[in-house]
Amino acid sequence: MFATGTALFRRRASSELHRICLWNTSIVTSRPPSLSTAAAAECKGPPPIRVSLTESAGRCVFATRGIAAGDLIHSAKPLVTHPSASLLDEVCYYCLRRLQKEASSVDASALGENESSSTSTCYFCSESCREQSKVFHEVEKGLDWSAFDAHCSTRRLKYPLMVKRLACMIISGAASVDCLDLLQPASLHPDIVMEMEEEFQLLKDIFVKGQFNNEMLTFFTKEWYVNVLARIRINAFRIELVARSYEEMITSATALVAADAAVGNAIYMLPSFYNHDCDPNAHIIWLENANAKLKALRDIEEGEELRICYIDASMDFEARQKILAEGFGFQCRCLRCLYRD
Ligand SMILES: [Zn+2]
Ligand SMILES: [Zn+2]
Questions:
Q1: Residue 301 C-alpha to ligand 2 middle, in angstroms?
Q2: Which ligand places an atom closest to the C-alpha of 317?
Q3: Among 110, 177, 257, 270, which is disulfide-ready with 219 (CB 3.0 to 4.6 Å)?
Q4: Where are the domains of the chain?
Q5: Per-residue pLDDT tens for 225-284?
Q6: pTM of the entire structure?
Q7: If you ran DSSP here, which 8-state letter would residue 324 be given?
Q8: Among the bound ligands, the one closest to the CA of 335
């Protein structure tokens, strides 16, 4: 995620951006197994976008052809997800899909796991999700998280849980140490860094007790923890599902039913490169799980920059400016804000 009007992140080499575009293309064309054929057909071909660096606004996403209102621009799979701590028994531990109430007695008992007295039960919506979680979940299962989970729960911290999962993914070989390095970090107040260092120590103690060999933990330094969390703080998306299933979505009269409360958080690469606009031409939605869909809100011309709104666009000018400054660290200078609308 990068903010309009700020001048950060110009230093990334264009070759890195090229690599990201290719990487994301492969993600779009490898269709999520959970989607029906009709939905998957929407994702055909490379996405009609390019990521470029600009002097005025850093990294930007541009349309490479005209895109019609309502069109799917591209999909994106998350790099890291984590369910809301209060919903561990209601959503899939991996893809954040809501467990079907009527099927939960069968599926949950078949796919749920009660690892240890110190860990909550977690559920998988499918064998595929269980399989994809297997490596990092094996690392998680062997450790006692009670001190760290209690710390996060009393302070209502959600992002450290994502760092915990990422660390387990790295230990198990499911993710690389630098997988979030291309994302913009939040600038951190020294007090926040001190809190992060406390969390780091809690996690470090747990990993050390887990008796991993030193080589596996060489990446896990205070600097790594703070750097990753600084990126997650500004780039994580709060996932609100608009439908419990794709079928529900297409049978819905409005196609955009009221969103459920957040099921968790996730972090992505390409969706994070979209700049903010209080009157955006694109938006990001989640249907039945954490696979993100970027959609055009209106007709977009070739060469036009694609922007999403990071916050609730219905807020007034002052409220938007305040949230964007405090939460994202920039002053919005979009057209709507210039007119103080
Ligand atoms: Zn799942
Ligand atoms: Zn604005």
A1: 21
A2: 2
A3: 177
A4: 14-33+48-77+268-322, 80-235
A5: 999 999 999 999 999 988 655 555 555 544 444 445 799 999 999 999 999 999 999 999
A6: 0.80
A7: I
A8: 2
